[in-house]
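Anyone else keep sequences and structure tokens together like this?

Example one:
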Amino acid sequence: PAMRLASLMGIRSIFVMTHDSIGLGEDGPTHQPVEHLAALRAIPNHNVFRPADAVETAECWQLAIESERTPSTLALTRQNLPTLRTEFVAENLCARGAYEFAAAEGGEAEVTIFATGSEVEVALGARRLLQEHGHPTRVVSVPCFELFAAQDEEYRRKIIGSAGIKMAIEAGIREGWDALIGSDGIFIGMKGFGASGTIEQLYPHFGITAEAAAKAAEERLHQE
């Protein structure tokens, strides 16, 4: 209710959430959010940020502070994550809502992988495998659906791309992702509730791994 009212009233509130996925682990499905990101993204006038690393977190925090009439939620992971953005960029890339994190190499992208939060690392791993198998692949980080939707049509088309297979990776349910990957896009994530176990057990169990994502993309490529 506080989030909804802050959004309705246009109050700059910042909600910081932790333990944002099945990565919570041993506490089991009662404590593992799977539908919450989709539910929060459905609230009008509310920016939901799911940063991939410390750099994106700092950028999202800046955007939340500077947002005068729109509240923000920062959904942070429990597990330790590597710093993926290691080169200085003056621009706040998260301000666009989505941006190309890694370009395809060796030709036009056959696969575009969209991901958020801790799954950006998974997407980069899948890209590496696909590139090794001769399939040019790009990765797009999507820290904020709402800010991406607010961009002009030309930028959105550029980021989504027109050719190749579209895939999204997020340790939550699919709702909301079809706006980027289409109804025929591949989704690597959750279809139901989680389970009790370590993160090392749960991500492979639910198929949220670089290997599973690369395999799904290659199977689709071979169908075409």
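And example two:
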Amino acid sequence: MRVQLKIFSVLVALVAGLVFAVPVAAEKLFKYVDEQGNVTFTDRQLSSGEQVSARQVEKDAPEQRFFIHLRGSRSDGTLQAVNQYFGPVEVRLEMKEADNVIADRPLPIRFVVPARDELAAANVRQDKKFSSFSYRYSYRVVFGDPAARHEPQRPYRAPVPAGQVFHISQAFNGKKTHDDDQNRYAVDIPMSEGTPVHAARGGVIMDVADDFFIGGTDDELGHKSNYVRILHDDGTMAVYAHLKLETLQFPIGTRVVRGQMIALSGNTGYSSGPHLHFAVQKNVGMKLVSIPFRFADAERRGFTPRKGAVVVVN
């Protein structure tokens, strides 16, 4: 089913250096009762008191791990780009409005921030002293380095457990939901909730979402799918989506190998039924696009996924 993950834009207004903060949503709401009968609700587990309930709290969107903030004085500062993802991102920074403000380089600009790194995007300063000033800037962020080239050394391992037979229900150019750039070359593999999902290719877990628990065909669920995004050595990325709540086996930043179990399948996000959505993507022109790939068959020969095809790992 359709999966749209983490191509996000942010519009930030600064007036005399005012910056913003992004609130962090709670994942669970815990209820505790102490010896005196006092009740406490918190989003953290406590060491004291008796826990009487824990309720899953729905989040609005996957956690963002990239931001730009102002460093320095209000009249002379640096827009610092901070990338907390375990993979590179490309950024487009644009000045929307500027009143009595000068940037040290022409905007808009595009640049790549490496994994777990930060850099100075632009210096901004007040032009005329003792006069009011304000400015607004916006930025878009896309996963991946546009210089990446898809160069797999062998066909992808089907992301299913060994010894079981599965069938592809939707493949490349699927008319139901595989009709946009991110999903054109994706595959859907129906499987029961809780089925082990395995890495089709080795790489680093670049980003994850693990806190969603609702699935259905409401458009509002499009960004509420649990997933794992794995960065390959050639710079492309694999996405495994609609995973079951809190079943990721490794933390972000872990390097996994081909065939390693990474999570359990589920039915979260925009989904008409339990299945795994798998795609290989790269950044092209500040846009995530899916790219064709081949699965290995039971004899380890490569084949192009098609609707109804059998996927099995011996």
